[in-house]
Amino acid sequence: MEHDLSRFAINQITTKSWNMPDAIEGYRRQGVSGIAVWRDKMYEYGVKRTARHLRDAGMWVPTFCATAWMNQVDEDKFRSTLEENKRVLCDAAEVGAPNVVFVTGGPPQGTKDLHGFRSKMHDAIGELIGTARDVGIKIGIEPIHPMYAGDRHVINTMRQTNDLIDEFGDILGIVADVYHCWWDPEFENELRRAGPDRILTFHYCDWLVPTRSWFDRGMVGDGIIDIARYKRLLDEIGYKGPFELEIFSDLDWWKRDPDETVRIGIERCAPFVGAIAK
């Protein structure tokens, strides 16, 4: 059975050992034309070289990962990072990304004011919006599992994300990830609340039992997430956007030959990226 992969992309972190040209050619070699670009890989290769290589290879970009963390105590360093993130928005637009994932970092080291840091990140989004509008790009808010709230990201639920979009408008969008949100009793209702237009991209991977580390995501089908259920829900609400395979895996997939990871990833994800899953 032939599957439609036109909406399928691989997030570069899945094949962590590949540099930018390796990933572009490696994905294309196996019939995947979508690549979610990572900031460090792009800057290592160069913004203009990345843009040219993507264009010449016929690749499309569902999203760009990600902004620099903004968890600095020092106000001058915070402002410097804010300016850095404005440049990231510009550079992401240059390589054809329609949106950039906004990741906050956890509360600054030595502080315990989660509420205050969330408020500061709210204001930071407000400052970044102008640049996003200027370069024609959206800011993608990815709610990340609350176990990461202490050191990686303080936007942790779909409800928080939808509330931010209600306030700031459609310059923001949702980067939804089953790994981060499958546990949330409100996830499905918040996907319906978002509707098809707010969801910028949808990440696939799986939750392993037991989970051995914070970077131990499973390949689709190896864990306990009901991927087919979420695909049916997305079809039901009329979502027409991309699907990405995104795996952080320091104990398994990052140790494998990336060609093998891509091949297996395509096999596992193919039933859930095209026609309605049965």
Automatic annotation (TrEMBL):
One of its GO terms (molecular function) is isomerase activity. Pfam families: AP_endonuc_2. Keywords: Isomerase, Plasmid. Residues 31-258 form the Xylose isomerase-like TIM barrel domain. InterPro entries: IolE/XylAMocC-like, Xyl_isomerase-like_sf, Xyl_isomerase-like_TIM-brl. This is Xylose isomerase domain protein TIM barrel. It comes from Rhizobium leguminosarum bv. trifolii (strain WSM2304).
